[in-house]
Specification:
The mean pLDDT is about 90. It contains six helices and five strands. Helix content is about 45%, strand content about 15%. A five-stranded parallel β-sheet has the order 2-1-3-4-5, sandwiched between helices. The protein is an alpha/beta fold. The N and C termini lie far apart (about 55 Å). The radius of gyration is 15 Å and the shape is globular. The chain has a single domain (about 5-160), classed as Rossmann fold (3-Layer(aba) Sandwich). The longest helix is centred in the C-terminal third of the chain and has 19 residues, at about 145-160.
Length: about 160
């Protein structure tokens, strides 16, 4: 029996969580855990930990956004990364950000492979166009570092074009 990849979806925007979950669910390929607050999201991360948090967790991906009420360093993404950095045996969990906040400093920090390591930075109005293909690439090829590099390269080329 083969288990479906598990995707944690967390955002304060309940509609966005539900839309992303429905999109993934309609494929029949993924199981989603929908959370609407950071406490529940962190509980889900801990539930899928392996080896008392020393090994990479069993989540295939985390889909989240920015919480506009918190400072950048207090975001869920950085709490997750801090937990992961405590063990040298643990690889970072792939993260997709869906957010309206496209401040260049936040985007650069999230895409930085040493900081956020996000594999994609999507807008809520257009995420439906690419979410399924991103998940398929992640699951089939399991190349989050390459995906992060590609996302960072796209961001840098966009930044150069704007100048």
């Amino acid at each position: 029996m083969r288990f479906k990849p598990v995707v944690l979806i967390y955002d304060l925007n309940n509609k966005l969580v539900d839309e992303a979950a429905a999109l993934l669910g309609n494929t029949g390929r993924y199981t989603s855990i929908n959370t609407y607050n950071e406490g529940n999201a962190m509980d889900a991360v801990l539930q899928y930990d392996r080896g008392f948090g020393l090994l990479t967790n069993k989540l295939t991906c985390v889909i989240t956004g920015w919480n506009n009420y918190k400072k950048p360093r207090d975001q869920f993404l950085y709490h997750l990364r801090a937990m992961e950095k405590k063990s040298p045996l643990r690889q970072p969990t792939p993260v997709i950000l869906i957010t309206e906040d496209h401040r260049e400093d936040l985007k650069r920090r999230a895409l930085d492979s040493n900081d956020g390591g996000v594999i994609a930075y999507l807008h809520p109005d257009t995420f439906k166009d690419s979410l399924i293909s991103l998940m398929a690439e992640l699951v089939d090829n399991h190349n989050p570092r390459e995906m992060n590099q590609r996302a960072m390269e796209e961001f840098l080329s966009e930044s150069l074009q704007e100048e």
